[in-house]
Amino acid sequence: MAQPRESASPDGPSTYESFVERARALAAEAYRPAPEDLPQELAALDYDAYQRIAFRPEKTIPLGQRFSLQPFHRGFLQRKRVDVVLQASDGTGRRLDYDSSLFDLGPALQGRSFPRSLGYAGFRLNTGFDTAKPNAQEEFLVFLGASYFRLRGRGQTYGLSARGVAVNTFGPGSEEFPDFTAFRILEPSGNETTITILALLDGQSLSGAYRFVVTPGEIAHIAVTASLHPRREIARLGLAPLTSMFLHGQNGAGARGAEAFDDFRPQVHDSDGLAVETEGDRLWRPLVNGRASTAISAFEATPLRGFGLLQRDRNFADYLDVQARHEDRPGLWVRPEAGNAAFGSGAVQLFEIPSREEYTDNIVAAFVPSTKPVPGRAIDLAYGLTTVGAEPTPLLSSAPARVVSTRVGSAERLRPTNPPNPQRRLYVIDFEGDGLPADPKAQVDVALSASAGAFVDPFTERVPQTGGWRLYAEYRPPNPLPAGDVVLRARLSHAGKVITETWDAVA
């Protein structure tokens, strides 16, 4: 089998700058996809047989005193090989060649072996979250498939994914999935608590170089530096993309055009909303599934302070799923480095794809710059990627009180009709957080808007059980409904000061 075309050389030290030069050189050439050289026995594996391939824990590869690595076997959907080189502190490198003894291959492949050139599909990193017990290591970061990677903090379970880049997600043009083709992992010295990963990306429309400086912990953080090099024009380039799953939740069938789910679990999702922070405001858009077609929303963010797909429902009773533990899944927050021009002008775009399957990621969010990429002109990125658990969190502490739930139903509570009157819909929005008045008699003002139709009779009340405030507002849509989305917004003020983030929804 052929060696990877752009494999990192293990002979000398690599730096981020050398990876940038390799990406620039790649972009000047015609794209050449990786060869389809997966042995038939591995290509033919089904999901269950692939899952039976297990890495042998005693074969884990140490990286310094606090980290270790386990590669992923190729097979099933994970067909492409990535080149992985470990670089010691003296600059010498060693390539991770395939070794079948590292794996229990399961019944379907019992007795089989494969050549060292097979390589691996990706890798996971482990760390000791407890500094007093560095040998008690847990998985916290995975790079596997295209440019996808997953990160979690201590006590969390994997949920949403990040990506290196999104190319033509819902066009115009066909969506592309560039691949991380080569990694160089800089082995930490001694007891270092951060680890640096260099990565080379290649795809039809662009190549790129990445540096990930990873700090695990209760809150996990990655400082991302990247240089993208377009080969050709790209209709829609998504920076710092996030991908998640939302099957059903509070919005349920109450949202216009959304179907109900026949499920014993009250909610099923890895993220329940998108937050977008701009100068002086933060917006919260609850996610919706079940529409007839993909919903695409854009939130102007010039300049962008941050955005993320978050999981705000943190109680087991919200999900009732013992195995999935959706309440422990992290959010991810993207914060551009100050002055990074790539995030200067543009919009955060949200894609909500109809799905009836829990294992399908149907939510995508990314920052799309106003200026389209130009072939031959590099795009330099610098941003932080941080896990978010239960809020409030220091990462978002500067923002006002947050939206914690959105519920929609018939406004005909006293004299209901059957079926309910579609011209009367009640929105109930709960806010929690610092800055909300403790006095239930406080004057709380409501700012409501609808791009079509109207809100009537809004009122607020303090919720003593949570210390938050609740907004009730009846929405009366126009008749007939417009063809496009109707955007609804609300926020609360007290004593002349805005005290909540902006709730945003599509009616």
Automatic annotation (TrEMBL):
Arranged from A to Z, the UniProt key words for this protein are: Periplasm
GO terms for cellular component: outer membrane-bounded periplasmic space
What pathway or pathways are given for this protein in its record? Glycan metabolism; osmoregulated periplasmic glucan (OPG) biosynthesis
Pfam families the UniProt entry points to: MdoG
State if Disulfide bond is listed as a keyword: no
SUPFAM superfamilies associated with the record = E set domains, Galactose mutarotase-like
Is Transmembrane among this UniProt entry's keywords?
Answer: no
Q: List the subcellular locations.
A: Periplasm
User: Recorded GO terms, molecular function?
Assistant: carbohydrate binding; catalytic activity
What Gene Ontology terms for biological process does this UniProt record contain? beta-glucan biosynthetic process
| Cited InterPro entries | Gal_mutarotase_sf_dom (IPR011013), GH-type_carb-bd (IPR014718), Glucan_biosyn_MdoG/MdoD (IPR014438), Glucan_biosyn_MdoG_C (IPR007444), Ig-like_fold (IPR013783), Ig_E-set (IPR014756)
Where is each Glucan biosynthesis periplasmic MdoG C-terminal domain found? 17-503
Family membership: Belongs to the OpgD/OpgG family.
Protein known as: Glucans biosynthesis protein
| Species whose genome carries this gene | Methylobacterium brachythecii
